[in-house]
Amino acid sequence: MKKIFALLLIFLCLNGCTMSSYSGLVMDENSGDDYWNATYEKFNGYKERNITISGDGSHAFAVEIVTDSGSLGLTITDNAGNELYTGNELPTSAFEVGVDSSDKYQVRVDADDHSGSFKIEWE
Fold first, then answer.
1. CATH of domain 18-122
2. Can you tell me the distance from the alpha carbon of 71 to that of 88, in angstroms, rounded to the nearest whole number?
3. What is the distance between the alpha carbons of residues 121 and 3, in angstroms, rounded to a whole number?
4. Are the C-beta atoms of residues 31 and 18 closer than 8 Å to each other?
5. Which residues pair with 6 in a beta bridge?
6. Do 53 and 98 form a contact (C-beta atoms < 8 A)?
7. Per-residue pLDDT reduced to its tens digit, 85-101
8. What is the model's pTM?
9. With contact defined as beta carbons under 8 Å apart, do 35 and 87 qualify?
């Protein structure tokens, strides 16, 4: 049993670990190798995802936020712990956050009674 749990944990971390402490009302969340999005009626707490961007050249995170009520914050941190982007109480908006290199990144959303959605894609 311990071996199965350990293998499952390793598999999840290799495929982009997601950490969270949240409550959500009618939450629909989807994620893949190059995207993460969620739509919900109410979201409280935080969710974070560890991702790896590979390949030469510049890369970017494309972010779309819909805020019907409440507040949503977003933080993107590189592997060294440097905050590349921090935004709080984000309104409905779309923007890009450029990154200079392939690396491991942490993307975190923090919500306080947020109603709406977020969509984050990277390349």
1. 2.60.120.380
2. 7
3. 34
4. yes
5. none
6. no
7. 999 999 999 999 999 88
8. 0.78
9. no
